[in-house]
Amino acid sequence: MLEFERVNVHYGKNHVLKDLSVRVGEGEVVSLIGSNAAGKTTTLRTALGLKSSTSGSLRFAGEDITRLATHQRVNRGLVLVPEGRQAFVKFTVIENLLMGAYHRADRDQAQKEIDIVFDMFPRLRERRAQKAGSMSGGEQQMLAIARGLMAKPKCLLLDEPTLGLAPIIVEEIAHTVRRLAAAGMTILLAEQNAAVALACAARAYVLESGNISLQGESDELRKTDAIKSLYLGN
Amino acid sequence: MGQLIVGQLLNGAIVGTLYGIIALGVTLTFGITGIVNFALGAFMMLGCYMAWYLTDGVGMPYPVAVVGAVAITSLAGLVADQTLFRFTRNNLVNGLLVSIGLIAVMEGAALLIWTSTPKNMEYVWPGVFMVAGLVVPKMKLLVVALLLAVILATYAALTRTWIGRAAYAYAQNPEAAELMGVRTKLLQSGVVVYSTGLAGLGGALYASLYSIDPTLGAVYILKAVEAAILAGIGSVMGSLFGGVLLGVTEGVGSIYLPIAFRDAYGLVFLVAILLFKPAGLFAGRK
User: Fold this and answer.
1) Interaxial angle between packed helices A93-100 and B162-172, expressed in degrees from 0 to 180 and rounded to the nearest 10
2) Closest CA of chain A from B162, distance in Å
3) What domains, with CATH codes, occur in chain B?
4) Is pLDDT at A234 greater than 60 in this prediction?
5) Is A99's CB within 8 Å of B177's CB?
6) Within 13 Å, how many C-alpha atoms sit on residue B241's CB side?
7) Which end of chain B is more exposed for a tag (fewer CB within 10 A), N or C?
């Protein structure tokens, strides 16, 4: 459904993604594991066109999207929940959710999806009229995911959804990702937390300074020494 | 004395709503493109001359001329955006340089075409209302009403429509707005053009009341920036309120204090307010 084909990305002279090829099949959940500055965020930003690639191609749902503007990619159902949540802090929860539906042709009938995400995150329903800026990090992360779902994505990209959150919230977010996966959502999850990444996804790529150093089924990756020593902390 | 005070209050309100409509453009442009467009005063001047030319020169009825003047000013705004302001997004210093250069060009062109001799339009709607023994010119009342209506309509559009919500979302977090599918480049250009259109409308209405000359924009843009700061940049209704407050302060101030210093009264007021509310009166609101 989403394919990176030998994508190269530069920041000035820095070569941050090197011949990156990543593939996410329809209905599949794939993780992108890597430490800080490995290129996870750049990969997702490139997918949305926030950062342009210097060479290589991007395909989404059978179409070449390499040259499309961000809003055109969003219109095709490619939705990114960005790193650091990026809530509209002066908007209420409801207003944030409505912005999620902004690109939809049927955005005036978004109430149904609001009810769905409120069922998924009951905490957001309680705080529906509260300003996003006054909520905790975990709540803002739930809001960011909910806002992404409001866009009715065909493929959801999640950038470090557990970063900086308390373990109990991390577990809740991971649970949500697994539930979305069970419902058939196509997901590309970028995570530093290898345990979460491997628990959510059937397949994963390990990214090291812009290169894929390892890839495979989560169950197999979990047994490799690289993952064990680098990310699982034993 | 009563007539004098009411007269100055009304003048203050007219001049103040004019400050307000330009301040609205200043505040919107700053919120969305990150620059202060000091050339909005020159766009107001363009609106004045277009309204004057289309009525007294071409012979159009005044309402049609106003629409024409707004259209021409917006078109000029679109050209300026695509050739100049497009390259100064979120660059305050470059935006300042470009807009000051644009003022020089527009004022120079106006001087060349229309000379420095002030022009006076034919009376559009002569006559006065008598309210409780006080004289209120009809046209002045109409101008205030029209400017108020446009500012209120803008406020309603910003708070109630999708495009308004997108603009406000963009002002809070540009990249997140882009990720929601907001067409950000279009939004930025749209706001720059809308602001020049507002300035053109202010100018077209101004021309029906006062005589016009190529440099009239300078005072208005300074006062508009003052009004926007007074209100707290980013506040839509605040720019109206700030403008009227400034206009009335100047009007009433010049009854009791030497009229030569009228431009200073508003400034003193601005400094006084910023001493107590450094972020402006309406800081943190829409």
Assistant:
1) 110
2) 7
3) 2-276 (1.10.3470)
4) no
5) yes
6) 15
7) N
For chain A, what is the domain count?
A: 1
CATH of the domain at A55: 3.40.50.300
The boundaries of the domain holding residue A196 are: 1-77+154-164+191-234
Q: Is A211 left (phi over 0), alpha (psi -120 to 50) or beta?
A: beta
Instruction: Please write the tens of the pLDDT for every residue from A148-188.
Output: 999 999 999 999 999 989 999 999 999 999 999 999 999 99
Tokens 């020593």 belong to which residue? A229
Q: What is the DSSP string of B239-267?
A: HHHHHHHHHHHHHHHHHHS-GGGHHHHHH
The residue of B163, B170, B175, B180 whose CB has the most chain A CBs within 10 angstroms, and thus the best one to mutate to test that interface, is: B180
Residue B283 banded pLDDT, cuts 50, 70, 90: low
Contact (CB, 8 A) for B196 and B25? yes
| Contacts B169 to A, Cβ<8 Å | 88, 91, 99, 102
Q: What is the pLDDT of residues A63-116, one digit of tens each?
A: 999 999 999 999 999 999 999 999 999 999 999 999 999 999 999 999 999 999
| The pLDDT value given to residue B277 | 82
